[in-house]
Amino acid sequence: MRHKDGEIVIKKLLIANRGEIVARIIRACRELDIKTVAVYSDADQNAPYLKDADEAYNLGPANPVKSYLNIEKLIEVLKISQADAVHPGYGFLAENYAFAQAVVSSGAIWVGPPPEVLKAIESKCYCRRIADSVGVPVLPGTNEPVRDANEIFQFAAKYGYPFLLKLDKGGGGKGIESVNSEEKIKGAFERLSRIGYMAFGNGDCYIEKQVMMPRHIEVQFLADHFGNYVCLGERECSIQRRYQKIIEESPSPVITEEDRQTLFNYTIKLAKAMGYRNAGTIEFLRSEDGSFYFMEVNARLQVEHPVTELVTGVDIVKSQLKIASGEKLDVEQEEINLRGHAIEARVYAEDPLSFVPSPGKIEKLVFPPANGHFLRIDHALEEGLSVPPYYDPMLAKVIAWGSTREEAIRRLREALAGFHIEGVKTIIPLNLMVLENNSFVSGQFYTGFVRELLAAK
Amino acid sequence: MEQIVRAHMPGLVARVVVNVGDRVQKGQEVAVINCMKTELSVQSEYDGVVKEILVKEWDEMEVGSPMVVLDVE
């Protein structure tokens, strides 16, 4: 129950998503006395969080296009349930302009940035132009989509190899090609344009010089409707497989207080220039020499938000709901101190070495022993539950806190070693390999870490 | 005689990459399945000619679901 000028704003929230994030959002709603409406496809009818929601509606077949990506159906549920707001979670329609606009047009509140912001930032080139215009460094590249292969040859002649060809409207690790020689330009350009048309209905590509041995550092921020902004520290997300994160932590082991102030400054400049509201993340690349470059905006709640919650004490989902209700930020930048260290491991249902997906039935499930508020496990698992082949492979997030990075890593290792899932394969053995690796423990790594770790095996 | 190329993993049909009448060789990709957002190649186990395509994009597959019918000499 939220108030604006004495009027209750959000009374009932539709959560347009599936899996652990639904359970996470329901927890926040309970603390705010907001009723919840969950949705599910035929493949998710036994999901444990459906019992915790006040209402639950079937969206139809397992196929996400007919269920979790079906805007018409979701708007129908919004109307039938009389929910007055929608939280899109992450993935699916979380950054979809058309869905956000449909929610707003039907008179409900969109818990996220304004639809017109979502529309504009769909284009990575637009984001690069904005960054350029406010003095935030971007990598050498093009700020408009390239028209033909000739333009790419010209770029290569000026800046050399390697560089990345990226889809202007790509995302989720899809639509990126590394080009390291002249012969590869035409093929990469044609392939990427085709993938773009097929996956996103748009084949526009742009160029970005490739940083060798980069680290992926991102800043979480909140923006209210009164021009207030607050940065909730950074997250180090360099441990990835196939451009997708598997281990995240806050603070980053390489970021100095001076770096942090620089990144906060960049983040707020960008958020202001974009007219951003609600919670968001700005991703940066850090090159080996310690320079930072703007990468992209994530206009949603992120999978890895818990590490920030553990070091700042700020509940990001509750903050999103309050901002969406028209409340002012109740925390100022000076009050944000990163306390201790938090680290998260994503547990995917995959073979830990080949990453071949492993859907199936969870035959046995033993959670790690409790460790007070030092350990948090966000999941939507239950013994006997089927993990469907149609959606993301993430089963759970295990997040540990420690007064130092070493302590947090140690606690996460202990937790993962005590987490037993049978019936599907998981990447827990890989998570443990990373967490036990000396280079990782000493903070010496970059985004190619997992690839090199596995190649050395 | 007829042989059927079947799904080796569950998921959704991402695309079928052959047409009726195409000659395919053993080991050649005939379709792609999206399983947990990962694309997996479905390959023919036979040399033959595509006689019938039984699936379309987004169809739900289980292990063993028939996908493509081949005429095999």
TrEMBL record, chain B:
Which Pfam families does the annotation name? Biotin_lipoyl
UniProt-listed Gene3D superfamilies: 2.40.50.100
Any idea where the Lipoyl-binding domain is? 1-71
Q: Which domain of life is it from?
A: Bacteria
Matching entries from InterPro entries are given as:
Biotin_Carboxyl_Carrier/Decarb (IPR050709), Biotin_lipoyl (IPR000089), Single_hybrid_motif (IPR011053)
What are the alphabetically sorted keywords of the record? Biotin
> Under which name does UniProt file this protein?
Biotin-requiring enzyme
